[in-house]
Structures are given as structure tokens and as C-alpha cells.
């Protein structure tokens, strides 16, 4: 106040009495009682971190709602709630109050309440496989991803009982870090968990746009300028995709809880917290096992496509974990639905990655085209052992059995083939279907999807029975499975129509069905109706 006042005089009994705390309008009381590791600041600079540049260090979205996954998607909120209820993941919460009248003070209270858990985040306790040990610099960077907001979310998860402790990084990457965590069951038994924390740095997430644009589930698009929102969207995508995959019975982490950019899931590893190796790092000597895993993986890809309606879109030996002859699918944040304009392109890429890897391991692989047809064919089984058997039949049906040169040529052709990017393009091609049929038709990589699963199914449900009997026969309109596919016994999953013993009879029947369908197509249905059918068919879950 006055300039004469001594700066730091020794305390004297005559000094005016100082309040124990100070009050700043709109900021509430000072928070010196809150340990620094959980202290939040409105206005005050946060710890410098490359990951939270331009981020206002506030926690409103963390405490707002306070309901984990329930708040992130109003449209599918019910589903998530149900899921969480079923999983019993909504542990008793001690801080359910919502910020209302005095928002800041209320958030502050919640922060203070969480501070008691601060010691349960111990990131120096690092658990990484030897071959994946990162150097110190890397680790330092990784630790910084735990900015104040992330720390707050983790504390909140601890408070809610999702986990009881968070440990060091299992993996530190460009886009996300995965941390080990522990939770305790009713008997006090430790259960390992994994927590994936998405990084919010702008550059890394730039190319993610192509996965989201065109996703009907993300119709609202995303705000490229807002990093935080984008990363949140990304975590949501992984959560939702994992839920589908896990509930379809595909080996994968079980998604447990989601808050903004932090996703808690079950841990794929041993009880001591060692994660299963990536397929890339798995030590498998037995050649037969490699082949078995290859067949297993093709089945998982098919199931993911047909049952979960998802294309992984980043599938490789890096995003598959291995344990005891079982493959686990992870890292599904970029996975898209079949109606995504680039889904088929992504699928083709996945197939290539998988094929290349297993070929390097010495496995006699099928051509990319055969795998593509196997995955997209509507009329094959979606469960084991039937899927594996179907693949064995494919092996038997190969015309140039294992001829590597022929396969290479076929793969090259297939990989360079035109894949439509939009529905409009698909329909234009479909109009020309008759022309293409005469020879080029089987090169239509999307024919499985278009002719069978989309257009015909949608046209008239009343005729479904008739169409069913022709399932698999339409396939020679395009690049579908060899017509022998009707020999597959998938009676367990879906009743098939008429079965054919005689090849000629089969051929005749196919011809007739083809004619009938051609006629049917002439009575073209309005585009908007088709589009509607396309999206409803592709969203359909079994
Ligand atoms: N549920 C889990 N259980 C055990 N380990 C896991 C789990 N999820 C991920 N991991 C480990 O973390 C690693 C990285 O996970 P993931 O592939 O999901 O992240 P990412 O998106 O690829 O991250 P980045 O691209 O930044 O490397 C995996 O290779 C795996 O070793
Ligand atoms: Mg990965």
C-alpha cells in the first residue's frame, strides 16, 4: 500500500492480524493447503509441458458431470450407462456434487478432496519389456504427458474406485502413453489394469482427420483448432470400438472407464503387471503355430468386420498382443465402420500388413484378394471353428496353389485396384455392373458389400428368402469367394437356402438368379432411400 511500509520486517505483536487465507473474486480462497501435485490454477501458469500448450488450465470439464463415460456422448449415453451398470464400474463416488452457484469454489473443493490420493500415482515405477526399454529422455517426455488435467482425471478414477494406484508407463508413444495400474477386488486381491492417456500435442494428431471424416458416428465433425476436444474424441472412439470388439468375444482389452482423453481398460498381461508381448516380439518357434495364428487372425478380422461392423484400420504385428497361442487385438481408436468412405481402402491395407508379416514368418499365405473376399462375404460363418474350416477350404480351392510369383502379381493388381471413395461412386459403378460383369466384374473389390449385403438385402425384405438362397452366388458378379463357398456348412450361424451338389445345376441356378437380380435393379430405387438402407444395414449388429 504505502511505500514506507517495511518490506519484510520481523513479526511484531503489534502487527495487524493477517487472515489465514486470502480471497480473490472469481477464484475463491487460496489453495495453499492443496498439495502442489494436485493444485490447479485459474490464471496461474501450469507446469510447462509441450502437451498442453495453449491450454487453459481449468478443470471444469473434468468435474462437470463427473460421470465418466456417461457424459461423453448424449446420443449413446444410455448404452454407455447400461454398460457401466452391467459392469458394476460405477463405484461409489464421494464427489458427485456438480459445480453450480459458486463454480470455482466447488471445483476447488473437489480438487482438495482428491488430493488425498496424490501418493497413489507413482510413475517412477516403470514396467517395460527389456527390448522396449526407452531411454531416459524418452521417459522424461512421457512423464510430462501427465499434465495437471490428466493427473486430476487419474485421481478422480482412483477416487471412484476404477483403479487404486497408477504406476509407470507400459508404453510411451507418439500419440498415447499406456500406464499400468492396479485395482483391488472385494477380497483385496490386486487386479492389473491399463490406462491409456492420449497426448494432446497438435502435430501428431493431424493426420487423424481421414479416419473421422465420413464416420457417421462423428457426424458433428471435430474442431481441428481445439486439441483437447480432438483428443477426447479420439479416446471416445477407442472406447466405443473396444466395447464392440470385446463384447463380440474378440480377445481384446475390456474397456472400463473413460474420462476425456483418459481410458481405463483391463490389462493384457500377467498378474505381476508384465504386459503380453506384441506379436512382433513374440518368440514362436513352431511353424505350425505361425500358420494357426494366421488363420486365427483372419477369422478375427472377419468377425470384426461382420459382427462388430469395424475395420481396424491400423492392424499390424504392432497392434496385436500374443499370449498362449491367442492373439489380442488392441489400439482401435482409428477403426472405422464399413460405411466410412475409405473403409475398404483401410481394410486392404490391414490385409497387406498382415499378409506381409506372416509371409516373413514363412507362412503360406492366401492372396490379399482371397482374404478380402473372405472377410467381406456375407454368407460365411463368423464363429470358430467354422471360420477356420472355411479358410482351409479356400486353401484347397487355390488354382495355383502357393505359387509365390502368381500370388505376388495378384497382390500387386489387387493393391492397385480402384476402390470407390464415396457412395456416389459406388452407385455409378453399379449402374455399369452389366458391362463389368462380362469380364472385369470380378475385379470390383467392393462387390461383396454392394451386391449382396447392401442393395439386395435392402430392396425388399419380403424377398429376403429368395435372396438367401442365392447368397454366395451373386459373388461371381465381382471379386467374391470362389463359388464353392456354398459348400461351406455354416448352418450353425445362419440357415442357408438350397444347397447344390451338382456343378451344372449350380451354374444354371446362378445364371437365373443373376438375371432376376439384373431385372430387379432396373426398377431402380431412389438414391436417398438406398443411402438410408446402406447406413442402416452397415450399422446393423448381429
Ligand atoms: N490393455 C493393455 N494391456 C497391456 N498392455 C497394453 C494394453 N493396451 C496397450 N498396451 C501396451 O501399450 C502399447 C501401446 O498401446 P496402443 O497400441 O494402444 O497405443 P498407440 O496408440 O499405438 O500409441 P502410440 O501410437 O503413441 O505408440 C501396446 O503395444 C501394448 O504393449
Ligand atoms: Mg499401437
TrEMBL record:
What EC number(s) has UniProt assigned to this enzyme? 2.7.11.1
- Which sites are catalytic? 314, 331
**Cross-referenced PROSITE patterns, in alphabetical order?**
RIO1 (PS01245)
InterPro entries of this UniProt entry? Kinase-like_dom_sf, RIO-type_Ser/Thr_kinase, RIO_dom, RIO_kinase, RIO_kinase_CS, Ser/Thr_kinase_Rio1
Keyword Ubl conjugation appears in the UniProt entry: no
| Catalysed reactions, as listed in the record | ATP + H2O = ADP + phosphate + H(+); L-seryl-[protein] + ATP = O-phospho-L-seryl-[protein] + ADP + H(+); L-threonyl-[protein] + ATP = O-phospho-L-threonyl-[protein] + ADP + H(+)
Q: Which Gene3D superfamilies match?
A: Phosphorylase Kinase, domain 1, Transferase(Phosphotransferase) domain 1
Write out the entry's keywords from A to Z: ATP-binding, Cytoplasm, Hydrolase, Kinase, Magnesium, Metal-binding, Nucleotide-binding, Ribosome biogenesis, Serine/threonine-protein kinase, Transferase
The GO biological-process annotations, alphabetized, read as: ribosome biogenesis
Protein localization: Cytoplasm
Cite the binding residues for Mg(2+). Answer: 319, 331
User: Acidic residues compositional bias: what residue ranges?
Assistant: 50-76, 468-490
Cite the residue spans of the region called Disordered: 1-102, 124-143, 454-542
| Binding of ATP, residues | 196, 266, 268
Instruction: Return the Basic residues bias intervals.
Output: 519-542
Primary place of residence? cytoplasm
Limits of the RIO kinase domain = 135-377
The biased composition feature labelled Low complexity covers 1-19
The annotated regions of Polar residues compositional bias extend over 79-102
User: What cofactor is this protein dependent on?
Assistant: Mg(2+)
Which of the seven top EC classes does this enzyme belong to? transferase
Keyword Transferase recorded: yes
- GO cellular component assignments: cytoplasm
Q: Please give the start and end residues of each transmembrane region.
A: none
Similarity comment text for this entry: Belongs to the protein kinase superfamily. RIO-type Ser/Thr kinase family.
Q: What is this protein called?
A: Serine/threonine-protein kinase RIO1
Q: What is the lineage of its organism?
A: Eukaryota, Fungi, Dikarya, Ascomycota, Pezizomycotina
